[in-house]
């Protein structure tokens, strides 16, 4: 079924035309949807009969807060939303000096299988609809009362595995009649689906591309990221260069530092060689420990040494501040806990 909440103004116009409504109503409906109304009743400038018909034909899907955690340390807020079909996804709001940024989910679960990531443990359940991504931004802003200026697609899921819906989401959230968030304030993170990186580059959007690299050679990447077997480093990096050539946007590389796996001096030197000549920025992220995984974060000393090798070699590298670590703010952890609790409750009831 087509969701009104994922439609552009001309598409809503088509729907309304069939209902013999004047063209200007499309903009009104769109504006209300992008304000985050909870029901058609709130669309007070529409005739009652139209509100009723729309409610019948296009039921509104509003996410429900099932958990909200606020970090005492830094004000980071993590939401666990329940979608209309009962599935849950997470959104994290982070407060920076340049504004408030939300990290949104693009899928329920993930099928990429990265060894260190909580989101992939139960596999992919389904892809999110464009409006389900938009609603994460919208309802986080409404619930928190904090205006959102930046978005990262780094929550649960692989955005480039849900390309069509992600592109529509970007169009919606960027629209002047909607939230009007600048493409330059949006960052998309991928584990490295090469053909999709090319496809995205061809759109020439001004969004930043972040690549989850996490390894300085194929052996390491193969071990922790199955996607590398399909798209090894020698294919991934040229795709990054092509993205840069098409968009002039510097590429961000994410590198989760895992004790004894990818954090040696040798690894840092290898990474330097890989990135030579590419307009790149490296984000070093001390691994967030996931209960089900034997992988551990690198020591502070190893992170610092790694960073200075990159910097000395001319590649800018920052160590990502860990925000909200007191509230399970890394990818998929809250959903996983909640789902397990629910399963636990069901099992209790069966006993
Ligand atoms: N699928 C996309 C986006 C979601 S993951 C991607 O792979 O980029 C967002 C980022 O968090 C990725 O860089 C991912 O590798 C990283 N990540 C996942 N689990 C992590 C963990 N336990 N510790 C640190 N970073 C993690």
Summarize the structure.
By secondary structure, the chain is of the alpha/beta class. The protein has helices spanning 9-18, 24-33, 48-57, 130-144, 163-174, 194-202, 218-224, 227-230, 233-247, 265-275, 300-312, 333-350, and strands spanning 64-70, 77-82, 88-96, 99-103, 107-109, 124-127, 148-153, 186-190, 208-212, 251-257, 280-286, 316-319. The protein is 38% helix and 19% strand.
Q: How many alpha or pi helices? A: 12
Q: H/E series, N to C?
A: HHHEEEEEEHEHEHEHHHEHEHEH
Instruction: Tell me, briefly, the overall form.
Output: globular
Q: What would the average pLDDT be, to the nearest integer?
A: 93
What's the Cα radius of gyration? 21 Å
What oligomeric state is this? Answer: single chain
Strand order, largest beta sheet: 1-2-3-4-7-8-9-10-11-12
Give me the secondary-structure category: alpha/beta
Give the termini distance in whole angstroms. 39 Å
Number of DSSP strands?
Answer: 12
The level of helicity is 25-40%
Biggest β-sheet, characterized? 10 strands, mixed
Strand content: 15-25%
Could you list the spans in which at least 5 consecutive residues all have pLDDT below 50? 344-351
Ligand inventory reads: S-adenosyl-L-homocysteine
């Amino acid at each position: 079924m087509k969701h009104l909440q994922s439609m552009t103004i001309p598409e809503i116009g088509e729907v309304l035309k069939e209902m013999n409504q004047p063209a200007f109503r499309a903009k009104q409906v769109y504006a209300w949807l992008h304000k985050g109304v909870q029901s058609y009743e709130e669309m007070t400038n529409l005739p009652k009969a139209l509100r009723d018909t729309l409610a019948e034909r296009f039921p509104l899907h509003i996410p429900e807060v099932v958990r909200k955690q606020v970090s005492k340390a830094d004000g980071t807020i993590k939401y666990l939303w329940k979608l209309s079909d009962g599935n849950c996804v997470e959104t994290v709001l982070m407060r920076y000096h340049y504004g408030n940024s939300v990290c949104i989910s693009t899928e329920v679960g993930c099928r990429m299988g990265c060894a260190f990531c909580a989101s992939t443990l139960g596999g992919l359940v389904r892809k999110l609809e464009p409006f389900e991504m938009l609603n994460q931004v919208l309802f986080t802003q409404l619930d928190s009362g904090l205006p959102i200026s930046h978005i990262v697609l780094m929550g649960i899921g692989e955005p480039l595995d849900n390309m069509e819906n992600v592109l529509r989401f970007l169009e919606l959230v960027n629209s002047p009649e909607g939230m009007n968030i600048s493409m330059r304030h949006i960052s998309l993170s991928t584990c490295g689906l090469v053909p999709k990186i090319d496809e995205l580059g061809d759109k020439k959007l001004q969004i930043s591309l972040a690549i989850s690299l996490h390894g300085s050679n194929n052996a390491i990447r193969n071990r922790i990221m199955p996607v590398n077997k399909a798209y090894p480093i020698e294919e991934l990096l040229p795709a990054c260069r092509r993205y840069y050539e098409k968009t002039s946007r510097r590429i961000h590389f994410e590198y989760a530092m895992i004790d004894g796996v990818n954090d040696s001096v040798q690894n840092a030197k290898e990474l330097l060689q890989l990135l030579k000549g590419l307009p790149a920025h490296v984000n070093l992220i001390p691994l967030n420990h996931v209960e089900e995984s034997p992988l551990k974060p690198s020591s502070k000393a190893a992170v610092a040494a790694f960073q200075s090798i990159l910097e000395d070699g001319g590649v800018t590298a920052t160590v990502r501040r860990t925000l909200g670590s007191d509230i399970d703010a890394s990818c998929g952890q809250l959903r996983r806990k909640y789902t397990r609790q629910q399963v636990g409750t069901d099992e209790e009831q069966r006993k």
